[in-house]
Amino acid sequence: TRCAEPCRARRCCAVPSRAVPSLAGGKRDNDLILPINSSLSVTLHQDQLKTTTTAAASRDFAEDRLWLNGEEANVGHPRLQACLREVRRLARKRRGGSDEDAAPLSLSYKIHIATENNFPTAAGLASSAAGYACLVSALARLYGVEGELSEVARRGSGRACRRMLGGFVQWQRGERPDGRDSLAHQVAPETHWPELRVLVLVVRDWRWRRGAGGGTAVPTTPRL
Fold first, then answer.
1. How far, in Å, CA of 30 to CA of 114, rounded?
2. Under CATH, what is the fold of the domain 9-220?
3. Between these two residues, 17 and 164, which has the higher pLDDT value?
């Protein structure tokens, strides 16, 4: 982590990337990141593809800050802020509505986040999904939030919800307009298919100019 000041609290989380044999073909709601169909993915081994995120909060931090692979990035990104707001909301609800509860730490403290990928970023390997899953997990541990978190991770990246669980995971389409039932659940553990091997070929490791999310929205995809 790049946090230089004394931290009141710090939590670290590591999340693997995934292979997706059944794709989510598009989004019916771009703001809530709701898919038009359910999809299935399988966890890859963390030794090969992994994102590690450290989240720290302190009364000494003057502002929220974010580092990605050692370089400072935009902490004000709307989807990142959506995840942060939702985790803090859940923490506030758990504490009975107080921001200043001293146990385990105040929700008013600024936060520093450092994320590292051991694979190419924004090169088609779903680094953003792994990053948001890792971010939500680290924030939940930091603020003492427990329970269902895949819906929170989905607010950052739709595919992030599948990375909250191991093994074979389904992202359920859901039916509710508010997206509360568009969740991930494990359909089989990582031991279900021990002979399975996944070959990943990185043809180009530079960043894509456009993220995957924009091309999957129903209004911008005429064939859906």
1. 27
2. Ribosomal Protein S5; domain 2 (3.30.230)
3. 164
